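Hi there,

I know you've been waiting on this one. I reran it after we fixed the sequence typo, so this is the corrected version. Both the input and the resulting structure follow.
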Amino acid sequence: MAQPAWQDPVPLSLDTAPVPAYGSGSLADLLPTLVAGQEVPGFTAAIPELTPADRNCVFLIDGLGWEQIKAHPDEAPFLHSLLPTSRGGTGRPLTAGFPSTTATSLASVGTGLPPGEHGLPGYTARNPETGELMNQLRWRPWTAPKVWQPYPTVFQLADAAGVHTAQVSAPTFEQTPLTKVALSGGSFLGRLSGEDRMDVAAQRLAAGDRSLVYTYYSEVDGKGHRFGIDSDAWRGQLMYVDGLARRLAEQLPPRSALYITADHGMIDIPFDEQSRIDFDEDWELGAGVALLGGEGRARHVYAVPGAQADVLAVWREVLGEQFWIASRDEAVAAGWFGPTIDERVYGRIGDVVAAAHDDVIITATVNEPHESAMVGVHGSLTPVEQLVPLLEVRS
């Protein structure tokens, strides 16, 4: 029954927001489960459906969510055929974690910790020490990596325990701060072509009696951002990466398990005023806001001192039917960032956190012109963004 026109809009209840499956079925649980099966001290198998293997390889395809594989059997016949193997043969996906964005997800994968502990809670987040927005993908402005993320990676701990550990990725990523805090440990092998990465990953997997190898491909996400997931360019990348996955699977040495996953899914947003709300042109949303962080579908809103309650009220009134709008404490209590929040991380979370429910984003065309021009986006708690595969091939 439609509500009468004279009634105020009813904000979405925070109880309706899906919470990532931290501790049992999120990206943060993957590597701890794999190395627990390799008898690395200090880890337990958080994803009980997975069977231990001596040699584990994780192939992370940036931006290729569960829903996208399901929807494209013709472009990704190999990946689509593996859907029943996902999550130990249950045919179920994992959840990325919140926000469902690359910096946050890669840190969750590599550290085995949820965002509230590793401390990369978004594309951009405020540094409480400086008051500046910190871009955690590009690492700008420069911030001491080990101060920002002090925990050892699973790769480092596995390497110390005698597991042959390697990352195979684009050479440009070797020295990035994000790689240092999220994916370092063992050896890094830079390879330009996707085919070379698959071949080297298989070689590194065979190089130890116990091995942990990670490899990565980014351009599915890149084409999705630029052209959208309904574009020929994106579908071409999907076809290409499907071939890469098959190439790697066919080279697995004995006693190996290959896990193909992603850091998030993606959704295309139309270019119209109803779907793209421009913060830089909206005086009402900007009132009392000192900094706008995060990204279009997962915003951290930092209020000027004393204005937190007013900003929360306005954002709920204006956007509450399209976004889950939470105060920092509400988002923490709901478990969006994980079951616990480190003290150093608490102030990085927005005074207000806005997670998109509908097909809509909050752009900032003046301050974020590149991001505001993206066709395909991600970040929120919806299934199309949150659900990622855990496809499995064993030898």
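Quick highlight: The two ends are 55 Å apart (CA to CA).

Best,
R. S.
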